[in-house]
């Protein structure tokens, strides 16, 4: 009993999660520990089944019937080893390159001349080639300034990055229902993970918990996922010192003690962060960035690095996740940051305290909100972002939609990304109140101004999407909302929107 | 030893649970200041079991099965170890620690639990379980505090840097044992007269208390679910001792309170309040701490002067707020909230108290309505209050007490927003005619429901 994971660790402060004892959903995607190569990359069974008669059998080299030496076979094996995969290089690309390498070697009769053990893996070769192209150090470190990421994103213009279907030519009621913005923003796990998840779906929870427990039992854990022959380190023997020089690394949840050969030391990690910042700015590929940040965080953890750099890694990851609306990942960073800030390691504690308050408004977790309020010091209250978040909270608590939307239009830092998550919900609440209080009607203009809409068209579309077009009436040149008829409809929509928010990874 | 052994035999012969529980209280009393040390000094590790067996069960009058005897000896043996740690700690021994006490006590708790599962300890001995559980919690908290003061952070094979889990490690461990006690009580199949089911509410309250302390209020839901699933086999709540009911109802009330489920919370807290012993001042104060904010939210009523007068702490908390709400003094209300914020947040009553502002606002607007006077009197009809009130009059009321600098000016849209909220929440009856700048209030004494006008 004492070795089991206590239930409150699994759910921590999510009182809404019913049944913590039985449905302890872990805050990460449970992944089956990979025991052999065959588990990996199901999309290419042919290549994998013949790891010893590797990919070559179908290529042009096959015609020459070359008998490959063990060194080459080991090399090919290494190419396919999961820990050597790089997210940005697809398996197909890698295979193509591998083929090229071996074919060239065979053509030039250098098959036995090459030191296969030292030869760079094809995925590394590809990456190096790309990096050469990309190496263009004209980018400043955007993330340190606390500004939104994309260019021209400052203040209200950030809206432009979102999926807003405002084709000006068609009337609002013609347009499709407004899509769930949140849905748009969630990053789903990479396809590889997804397929694994699907495979695991049936056995999830219990079996996985069991597996996990075993993994954490420590010293006896098998150390079988590496092709290298470094001595097996003991678990919990102090920090690992990494010696991996690669900048990029795929995230893989550790199943045993970390291998120093795949862990990057601090100096490399610092370069990694710079590279990631550049890549994010340039490519904006969130799936890739998120994965890279997770492995970065992991390398920091296993080496017990806990300093200003750690804080900035978490902050940047949190901001990126926020921008993409990946609240699960954001919340993980936020939880970590709270602990890091408590150790006075620098960073931007007030900025994130403000986000935290806004986040709990969104999730409507009042127990956690109370904790967040308890964390705010008198000094913090002088900070504009914290002050703003506190005002938002109290405006909502008192139903003061007027002040709420004034605050919404003037949100510091990246708080607006969080507020976007719940403005529509609050608009419905406000409309429910307005329709009850104003008789017989109000102008659309009034609603647009009170509820922070950008145009009367947007307001009209919102009203139609959530109630019905019959509530709008044109009278002496102005469009009016017939409040007398509308109350019940918005009441219903409001209740719908205020259902409890459940977010993956919330702890 | 002779004292403790005699107490045990005595309690056992009389079948007195409370007397048995005092045997296992690891505190020296004023009557016998050396009860622990004499127990510890009476034997040594080598002869422990033999000595215990003979002094506990040899002699006439005590008929206990062999299995039960062995189980009690085991409990006493673990108790002896724990007492040793307690004494070491009290003497300031260099190897003594709160953690060691906790570990020893935990062993004892486990031995006791084993006695219930394997050796059939009778249900009348349950008070032992309460006492052992209670001290398990106390010792765990002390051990956690000790660990916090020595603070060393450990890393495991984790993905993230800071796992904020070490803080309550001992108490979490203890909670697991208490949870076992919970199961032992709930699932006892013995006939109800001699069932451990009678301990369920007491142990549940202990576990609630523990979960609150480790910030895992969510886990209390699991206990309630388990109890509900068994409810058809449990005796009705009223037949339990009052002390069990009061504590249980109090926690249920607080759990609902934290979920913002104030109606339910009020029901349970009121029960606890009614049944609470008059002299249990501390408990009554605790209940009121949550019952008063509940009442404010659900019924919009304030605590009376007499009620507050008997609880100085509550008086301090709620008097200034109540006065401001009554007078409709918004500026004063905000100041009182700000002044009490830290304490309110700590006790988790800030959010509901904040809602009192609506009542203060209602009272202020009500004054505007009354000050508005009456319509032109009509022949032979009773006077009718003026029911069309310009929004600017409400705006003027809002400026009372504020420094009328440009910054604190309130714009008309915001005043309308406040009005529309009161109407929406049913605190005011009427409607806003925006174009004409009027609020039209209900006639026939219904403009401010429940306040007489």
UniProtKB/TrEMBL annotation, chain A:
Residues 180-197 have a biased composition (Basic and acidic residues). InterPro entries: SAC3/GANP/THP3, SAC3/GANP/THP3_conserved. It comes from the Eukaryota. Residues 36-59, 141-208, 220-239 are annotated as: Disordered. It holds the Pfam family SAC3_GANP. Residues 250-466 form the SAC3/GANP/THP3 conserved domain. GO terms for cellular component: nucleus. Residues 43-59, 223-232 have a biased composition (Polar residues). PANTHER family: 80 KDA MCM3-ASSOCIATED PROTEIN, LEUKOCYTE RECEPTOR CLUSTER MEMBER 8. This is SAC3/GANP/THP3 conserved domain-containing protein. It comes from Penicillium frequentans.
Automatic annotation (TrEMBL), chain B:
Signal peptide: none annotated. Residues 246-446 form the PCI domain. GO terms for molecular function: double-stranded DNA binding; RNA binding. Transmembrane segments: none annotated. Pfam families: PCI. Belongs to the CSN12 family. This is Protein CSN12 homolog. The lineage of its organism: Eukaryota, Fungi, Dikarya, Ascomycota, Pezizomycotina.
């Amino acid at each position: 009993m004492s070795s089991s994971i206590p239930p409150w660790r699994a759910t921590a402060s999510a009182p809404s999660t019913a049944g913590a004892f039985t449905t302890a959903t872990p805050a990460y995607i449970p992944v089956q520990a990979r025991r052999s190569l065959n588990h990996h990359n199901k999309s290419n069974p042919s290549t994998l089944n013949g790891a010893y008669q590797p990919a070559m059998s179908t290529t042009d080299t096959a015609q020459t019937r070359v008998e490959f030496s063990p060194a080459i076979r080991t090399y090919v094996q290494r190419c396919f080893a999961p820990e050597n995969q790089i997210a940005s290089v697809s398996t197909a690309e890698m295979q193509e390159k591998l083929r090229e390498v071996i074919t060239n070697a065979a053509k030039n009769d250098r098959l036995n001349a090459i030191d296969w053990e030292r030869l760079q893996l094809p995925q590394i070769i590809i990456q190096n080639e790309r990096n050469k192209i990309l190496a263009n150090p004209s980018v400043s470190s955007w993330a340190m300034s606390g500004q939104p990421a994309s260019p021209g994103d400052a203040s209200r213009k950030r809206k432009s990055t979102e999926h807003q279907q405002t084709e000006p030519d068609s009337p609002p009621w013609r347009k499709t229902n407004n899509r769930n913005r949140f849905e748009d923003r969630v990053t789903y796990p990479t396809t590889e993970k997804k397929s694994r998840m699907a495979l695991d779906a049936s056995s999830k929870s219990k079996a996985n918990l069991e597996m996990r427990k075993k993994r954490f039992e420590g010293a006896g854990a098998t150390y079988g996922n590496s092709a290298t022959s470094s001595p097996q380190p003991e678990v919990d023997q102090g920090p690992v010192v990494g010696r991996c020089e690669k900048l990029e690394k795929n995230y893989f949840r550790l199943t045993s003690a970390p291998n120093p050969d795949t862990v990057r030391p601090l100096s490399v990690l610092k370069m990694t962060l710079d590279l990631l910042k550049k890549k994010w700015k340039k490519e904006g590929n969130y799936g890739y960035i998120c994965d890279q940040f997770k492995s970065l965080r992991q390398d920091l953890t296993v080496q017990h690095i806990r300093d200003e750099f750690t804080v900035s890694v978490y902050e940047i990851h949190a901001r990126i996740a926020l921008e993409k609306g990946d609240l699960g990942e954001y919340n993980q960073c936020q939880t970590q940051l709270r602990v890091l800030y408590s150790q006075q390691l620098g960073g931007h504690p007030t900025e994130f305290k403000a986000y935290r308050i806004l986040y709990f408004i969104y999730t409507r977790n009042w127990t956690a909100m109370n904790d967040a309020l308890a964390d705010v010091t008198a000094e913090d209250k002088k900070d504009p972002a914290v002050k703003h978040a506190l005002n938002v909270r109290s405006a909502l608590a008192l139903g003061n939609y007027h002040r709420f939307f004034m605050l919404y239009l003037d949100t510091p830092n990246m708080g607006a990304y969080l507020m976007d998550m719940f403005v529509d919900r609050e608009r419905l609440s406000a409309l429910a109140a307005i329709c009850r209080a104003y008789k017989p009607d109000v102008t659309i203009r009034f609603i647009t101004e009170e509820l922070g809409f950008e145009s009367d068209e947007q307001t009209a579309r919102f009203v139609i999407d959530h109630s019905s077009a019959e509530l709008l009436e044109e009278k002496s040149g102005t469009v009016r909302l017939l409040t007398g008829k509308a109350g019940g409809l918005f009441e219903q929509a409001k209740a719908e929107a205020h259902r409890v928010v459940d977010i993956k990874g919330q702890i | 030893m002779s004292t403790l052994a005699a107490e045990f035999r005595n309690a056992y012969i009389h079948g007195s649970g409370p007397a048995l529980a005092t045997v296992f209280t690891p505190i020296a009393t004023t009557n016998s200041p050396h009860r622990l040390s004499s127990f510890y000094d009476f034997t040594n590790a080598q002869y422990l079991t033999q000595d215990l067996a003979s002094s506990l069960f040899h002699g006439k009058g005590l008929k206990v099965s062999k299995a039960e005897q062995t189980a009690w000896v085991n409990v006493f043996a673990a108790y002896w170890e724990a007492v040793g740690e307690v004494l070491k700690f009290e003497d300031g021994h260099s190897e003594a620690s709160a953690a060691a006490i906790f570990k020893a006590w935990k062993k004892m708790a486990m031995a006791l639990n084993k006695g219930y599962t394997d050796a059939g300890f009778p249900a009348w001995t349950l008070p032992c379980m309460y006492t052992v559980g209670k001290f398990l919690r106390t010792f765990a908290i002390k051990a956690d505090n000790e660990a916090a003061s020595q603070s060393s952070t450990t890393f495991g094979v984790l993905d993230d840097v800071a796992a904020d889990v070490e803080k309550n490690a001992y108490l979490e461990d203890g909670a697991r044992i208490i949870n076992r006690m919970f199961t032992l009580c709930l699932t006892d199949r013995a006939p109800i007269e001699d069932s451990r089911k009678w301990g369920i509410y007491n142990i549940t309250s202990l576990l609630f208390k523990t979960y609150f302390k480790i910030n895992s209020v969510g886990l209390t839901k699991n206990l309630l679910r388990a109890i509900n699933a068994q409810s058809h086999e449990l005796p009705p709540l009223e037949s339990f001792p009052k002390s069990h009911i009061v504590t249980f109802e109090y926690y249920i009330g607080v759990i609902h309170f934290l979920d913002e489920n104030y109606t339910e919370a009020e029901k349970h807290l009121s029960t606890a309040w009614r049944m609470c012993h008059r002299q249990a001042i501390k408990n009554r104060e605790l209940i009121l701490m949550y019952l008063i904010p509940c009442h404010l939210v659900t019924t919009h009523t304030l605590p009376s002067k007499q009620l507050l007068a008997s609880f100085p702490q509550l008086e301090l908390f709620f008097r200034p707020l109540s006065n401001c709400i009554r007078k409709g003094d918004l500026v004063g209300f905000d100041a009182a909230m700000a002044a009490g914020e830290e304490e309110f947040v700590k006790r988790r009553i800030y959010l509901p108290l904040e809602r009192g502002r609506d009542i203060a606002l209602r009272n202020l607007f009500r004054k505007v309505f009354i000050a508005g006077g009456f319509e032109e009197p009509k022949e032979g009809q009773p006077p009718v209050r003026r029911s069309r009130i310009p929004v600017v009059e409400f705006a003027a009321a809002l400026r009372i007490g504020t420094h009328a600098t440009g910054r604190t000016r309130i714009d008309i849209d915001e005043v309308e927003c406040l009005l529309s909220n009161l109407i929406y929440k049913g605190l005011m009856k009427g409607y806003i005619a925006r174009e004409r700048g009027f609020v039209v209030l209900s006639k026939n004494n219904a403009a401010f429901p429940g306040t007489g006008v």
